[in-house]
Write a structure and sequence with these properties.
Radius of gyration: 19 Å
Structural class: alpha+beta
Shape: globular
Order of helices and strands: EEEHEEEHHEEEEHEHEHEEH
Helix content: 25-40%
Strand content: 15-25%
Number of strands: 14
CATH topology of the largest domain: Glutaredoxin
Mean pLDDT: 86
């Protein structure tokens, strides 16, 4: 999972992080903790203030700090729910643009009653590109009569972004819809993304029922899709 700084967006964190990061003059990769840092659990609950750091955990290459050992233990039980949110939960409202520049959202009648697999990706993210052929296979397997749709949302920005996106679509032979995250507030913000690729499985009632960060196992994705289809 790769990350890159995008203009007008928060910094997307890298899974392949620099082994040793300087923080407040202390080596994160060493034995010392910074004097203060935002607590990952408290931040998830709305308190973003820096507090004395008492513990830390590493998850998918990123280091998280905690104000108490109890917060660390809570995080370690289910890191993704702390980073992205608990499951199930309502899908946040968002709008994006098609590659033709048309404003679009999942409120469209086209997606009513559909199971949606949203893939947040970028053209500069190698794991994203490696994941796309698997997502295309899922699209082909479930698109006919199964009401399952894969939706790619690119975080690319800049004057040549659409050209780059179109090139990837052609090279990877992608048939599922791909939108661009250009509207405000961005989907990046409303979904509380930290990295790409990040995938969300949305059920027919617009609840997020599964989520993956990094290069996800397509078998695990299909298993969750089948769970939703079996509920009908």
């Amino acid at each position: 999972m790769k990350h890159k700084k995008i203009k007008s967006r928060p910094l997307i964190l890298m899974t392949v992080l620099i082994p040793l990061i300087s923080f407040s003059g202390l080596a994160v990769g060493g034995s010392k903790l910074p004097e203060t840092a935002p607590c990952a659990v408290c931040t998830a609950n709305g308190n973003t203030l820096e507090m004395p750091a008492k513990a830390r955990s590493r998850y998918q290459g990123e280091i998280f700090y905690f104000c108490t050992v109890a917060c660390k233990d809570q995080f370690d039980k289910d890191p993704l729910s702390m980073i992205l949110g608990p499951l199930p939960r309502p899908m946040p409202k968002f709008t994006a643009e098609t590659l033709n520049g048309k404003k679009n959202s999942l409120k469209s009648k086209k997606y009513k009653g559909q199971i949606i697999l949203i893939d947040f990706w970028a053209t500069w993210c190698l794991p994203c590109l490696e994941t796309m052929p698997e997502l295309e296979r899922i699209q082909q397997k479930y698109k006919k009569g199964r009401n399952v749709t894969v939706l790619g949302i690119s975080l690319d920005s800049g004057a040549e972004a659409r050209q780059k996106i179109q090139k990837v679509i052609q090279e990877k032979k992608i048939s599922y819809p791909v939108w661009q995250d250009t509207k405000k507030p961005s989907a990046f913000e409303t979904f509380k993304l930290k990295s790409v690729p990040t995938l969300f499985l949305i059920d027919q009632k617009r609840q997020i029922v599964a989520q993956w960060v990094g290069k996800a196992d397509h078998k695990a994705i299909e298993k969750q899709i089948q769970v939703l289809l079996n509920k009908k």
